[in-house]
Amino acid sequence: MSTTPLRPYNFSAGPAVLPEAVLRTAAAEMLDWHGSGMGVMEMSHRGKEFTAIHAAAEQDLRDLLAVPANFRILFMQGGGLGENAIVPMNLSRGGMVDVVVTGSWSKKSLKEAGRYADALAVASNEADHHTSLPAPATWALRDGAAYVHVCSNETIDGVEMGELPDLAALGSRAPLVVDCSSHILSRTIDWSRVGLAFAGAQKNIGPAGVTLVFVREDLLGHALSICPSAFDYKTVADNGSMFNTPPTYGIYIAGLVFQWLKSQGGVAEMERRAIAKADLLYGYLDNNGGFYRNRVATQARSRMNVPFFLADDALNDAFLSGAKDAGLLQLKGHKSVGGMRASIYNAMPLEGVQALVNYMQDFARRHG
Amino acid sequence: MSTTPLRPYNFSAGPAVLPEAVLRTAAAEMLDWHGSGMGVMEMSHRGKEFTAIHAAAEQDLRDLLAVPANFRILFMQGGGLGENAIVPMNLSRGGMVDVVVTGSWSKKSLKEAGRYADALAVASNEADHHTSLPAPATWALRDGAAYVHVCSNETIDGVEMGELPDLAALGSRAPLVVDCSSHILSRTIDWSRVGLAFAGAQKNIGPAGVTLVFVREDLLGHALSICPSAFDYKTVADNGSMFNTPPTYGIYIAGLVFQWLKSQGGVAEMERRAIAKADLLYGYLDNNGGFYRNRVATQARSRMNVPFFLADDALNDAFLSGAKDAGLLQLKGHKSVGGMRASIYNAMPLEGVQALVNYMQDFARRHG
């Protein structure tokens, strides 16, 4: 009897696994959404059908993350790399931008912000090869910075902030900008500490091509004159994310994911599951006799993206090939880090992580 | 016996009707693409499965439109309104941009280009309420313009250029930029006259959130310093449209549409069908005793987007409601023009246009 599950477990860092229930609904509704005679991809974004889909997605997201009324939720395009330019075009006013470098993504944000502002790394874990988290008390925050940028979960390096920094307590009056692409909806967000948060949907939500932006209303309306209209948060907000044609199908899929999250118990339940999955995987990585290891400092470890290494790199290909045969997909690490990476987002069940650990144990036994 | 077809005919201007065969394939492959164990939305954009989908879509598109080897094809995000900024950020060099105003879309392009360059309307049909086409010989082209922008099919106004202007013959050395969003793949493109062409996919291809850009290689590499990396054509081209995560599912759907187009006989067959559909609809609009009319000059009429008006505006609601009952959807005109609009893209069969004409005849008989 094969040990391969009916549907393999997919550990991709993004685009990533979606809940099977969501895919089944999407397939069933492909030619006809709710008796409208149209598939969702075929609907005018201004018609009552899609307007209802969009409004429900936004409200469900607001409910799930308890987003306060003074934050606008925008559905945009361009992903995290797009936002790396769009944020400073909207918020920097050409002034100072403080960036906390904790991995590959925040480094990219720092570099791109430099096109529009005086961007400075006010802290960095580069000397640790992005395996630690610089303590907020050590950040060299500048007076008068337009904003402070953090990436609260580094997808490539597997580093996650357990909580968002309290800039006010650090003596800063700058708004905090949070790139939470790869762990959004896996834990609560303390909005009292946030000015703007953004997330590409293709990691913990699913469809690529949708970017979620949560922006405090007082930060709208300060875009640089060179900011494209389609990426000016105020223009997007004033038009209810319909200034340009939104990525309608991706918003629909995201909305189905939000419904699924609610049905499963919401963000609190996702956090409980994330802790259980991470405990299982890190527990094995720390106690396997040295065959595998994760290099990130314990307090900085991501619950979502778990890079790990075989002690013997020469076994990498055999590991990946055997994993695929066992129904465990997309485990190859990012090229900049090497080794393996298991992304264990909301849509990954505990059983998938258990299957991975079982396979890892078996592989170590055969090759150890 | 009901006259409603099993699947209604959808005349939306975009997002718009998709071929039923494409939707059926997408639904069937939703949970497992070609035995990979993953749906397309769940695949890493860098994995071999999606890389193959992307490469096939690009090659099919190149084949369908006979795109020369010195043009790069980019899959981007942001739609036509995004390109209105992205084009001048990449091509204007801060100099002069000549825009031919033929309707709502080229007016938007003119306004947005003004953020980055000395943008000027070198011709306009505004005095005609966008119902005509200014003859190229009358365009006040400027020496040294960085490029000349035209919208070869105005979705809102229903105005289409029968052929692209030959700028060289007009004494200009500027590259021609063509917004062909709403009639791409319905006719051939004379690439010898083009420097850059772009199209939002949500009109004549289907999925919103994908923008196609065709750019001559010599135009790459001149972006303004404030151009976001994710929208710098050279960066996008150098990374094979994978600098940031592309809208993977939309590219997959577009690829299925390209396969469908090939199976139907390609662009030549689409043009033949477009002529037949347009002849049928305009033929009736011009010969119905004055109950309905189209206001666009005969030589300027779009084969794709057909705005029309009832002589008695008070009947509009009854017309739309009866149309819906007859399985004819999304016929309401754009709010800036009023009346009705039938968009009859590649995926609309002749039978759909015939059903519309039949309904219009019946409605006129009952209300005339």
TrEMBL record, chains A, B:
Modified residues (N6-(pyridoxal phosphate)lysine): 203
Membrane-spanning parts: none
Domain Aminotransferase class V: 9-356
Keywords, ordered alphabetically: Amino-acid biosynthesis, Aminotransferase, Cytoplasm, Pyridoxal phosphate, Pyridoxine biosynthesis, Serine biosynthesis, Transferase
Cofactor: pyridoxal 5'-phosphate
InterPro entries linked to this entry: Aminotrans_V_dom, Aminotrans_V_PyrdxlP_BS, Pser_aminoTfrase, PyrdxlP-dep_Trfase, PyrdxlP-dep_Trfase_major, PyrdxlP-dep_Trfase_small
Localization: Cytoplasm
Its EC number(s): 2.6.1.52
Keyword Cytoplasm: yes
Free-text remark on how the cofactor is bound: Binds 1 pyridoxal phosphate per subunit.
PROSITE patterns the UniProt entry points to: AA_TRANSFER_CLASS_5
Major localisation: cytoplasm
GO MF term set: O-phospho-L-serine:2-oxoglutarate aminotransferase activity
The UniProt record lists the keyword Acetylation: no
Positions contributing to pyridoxal 5'-phosphate binding: 105, 155, 179, 202, 244-245
Pathway this chain belongs to: Cofactor biosynthesis; pyridoxine 5'-phosphate biosynthesis; pyridoxine 5'-phosphate from D-erythrose 4-phosphate: step 3/5; Amino-acid biosynthesis; L-serine biosynthesis; L-serine from 3-phospho-D-glycerate: step 2/3
NCBIfam families documented for this protein: PRK05355.1 (NF003764), serC_1 (TIGR01364)
Quaternary structure (record): Homodimer.
Name of the protein: Phosphoserine aminotransferase
The species this protein was found in: Ideonella margarita
